[in-house]
Amino acid sequence: MTFRLRALRALVLLVGFYLLGAVLLAAMAGLDWLLVTRLATERAAWLEGGVLTVTVLLAAAIVRGMVAALRAGRLRPVPDAVAVTPQDQPELWELVRAAAEVTGERPPDELLLVADVNAGVAERSRLLGLIPGRRRMLLGLPLLAGLTVPRLRAVLAHEFGHFGNGDTRLGGIAMRGRTAVLHTVEAFDRGGTQYHVAVGRLYAAYARMFLNASQSVARQQELAADRVAARHAGRDATAAALRALPVLGAAHSHYLDTYAALGGPVGALPPEGEVHGGFRRMLAARTDEQLAALCAGRRRPRPHRYDSHPPTAERVALIEQLPGDSRTDGGSDGGTGEPFALALLRDPESVYAALEACTLAPEAARLPRLSWDELVLARAVADAEGWSRPLQTAVVRAVRVAERAAGRETDREARGTADPVADGELPELEEVLDAFDRGLLWNNVGERMPKPPQAGRLTGASARNFVRPRIFDGLAGLVHLRLIAEGHATPDIAWSGRPGLALPETWEREMDDALDAAVADTPDTAPLRALLAGSRRVPA
């Protein structure tokens, strides 16, 4: 079957999906008419009333589904986006209009910048997209920060390619119909009554038939849009953009988890505009290999059953089979000299600030702002206190037991070994090391470290090996707090690595070995005490 025939079949099935509700309503109206005018009897009045009630409720559910189908083409408000006009960002609009022109399509009526690694064109469809409507483009700022201009040009041309491709216009209609069908089925799922569920199952069955029939059409549309992008931006730039998108997605997720959320535990935010704007700093500090490693370490999400996108490797291979051209692939700024697309924006700092203002929840927007270094330091202190508190608590309780056994109880030490430990009772680093030297580490302290119930049955070496990393972390937390207090640890945002503390060279070189010795089966605190003594001799 040719592509045109497959697209025509999908279009017929799509029309049938919209007619399904009308057919069902007509059938129920006919049934009700027969009940009232032909089959009405006094004996069966209760049955007729029940049938009429059920048909009315089913009709209400169907009408709701038909309304949802009609509303599927509407452009809904996008509160978490920044609208930019041609007067605000003329260079960016020029690039967008050029991409629309090369596909023979109208440029968007509005351009919205969003915080996702995403781009897309949506249209207020009428008659399945046969009648043009208002058009909107969503464009992610992370794409501008991570793609060069030629690569962004390829992405834009691809998105407009879904609406063009003259000879495959039926396929474009089918693709927009898939979105409307899924929207309608979801509306039935949210119906909330058994009648919505019952009708929704019928619609879902028809939807599966339509989606299966249009799957190959949708995939061909994606490949056709890739070819449009290659004609407009160049073969190499299009292939490079396809490879870059999953890498950017993984890098952006890493940024959100590692940097943007850095102040969460301490109730603070980065400087204004840096919640999203810091992503460009991370990209600038990392090599292509470092960014690719972020993607390589992530499990790829399982594709949706009805995903219209062929595998990226397949799309890249097909693009690379096209004839070559002299246009650059838009390599990174430090390579071929191509600027990143963020250079198209005028005053990007204000754009990032505006996007941040509309994406942050009101309670988050009221949090205090700290510089990146202040944020790293505050987080380091909070983490160190969190690591060290369980160890300090265990040491206090272990000392209570030891003092009771030695008959040297005081009023404070006579408290129960499981009683809460006040902040004023928490031992300093040297007191913890003293407890280790007294032999309390594995006899008492280790037993009082928090552990999950399933680990409570462990004994001997197995128990020690389970809690040893937690004791190591607790001791490291106390060391960090000491070095911060003495001014020997400085915050390091580490855009190319992980944010944390920069320690003196001696500590960076010898700290782990000293901590390992202190938490060994036979604890040796001398190396750690030597490091502490050396740090006190260094002027702050």
UniProtKB/TrEMBL annotation:
Annotated InterPro entries: HtpX_protease, Peptidase_M48
Q: How does it sit in the membrane?
A: Multi-pass membrane protein
What keywords are annotated for this sequence in UniProt?
Answer: Cell membrane, Hydrolase, Membrane, Metal-binding, Metalloprotease, Protease, Transmembrane, Transmembrane helix, Zinc
Q: What is its main location?
A: membrane
* Reported cofactor(s): Zn(2+)
Q: Where are the transmembrane segments?
A: 45-67
Q: Where is the Peptidase M48 domain?
A: 137-320
Q: Where in the cell is it found?
A: Cell membrane
Write down what this protein is called.
M48 family metallopeptidase
Q: Which organism is it from?
A: Kitasatospora cinereorecta
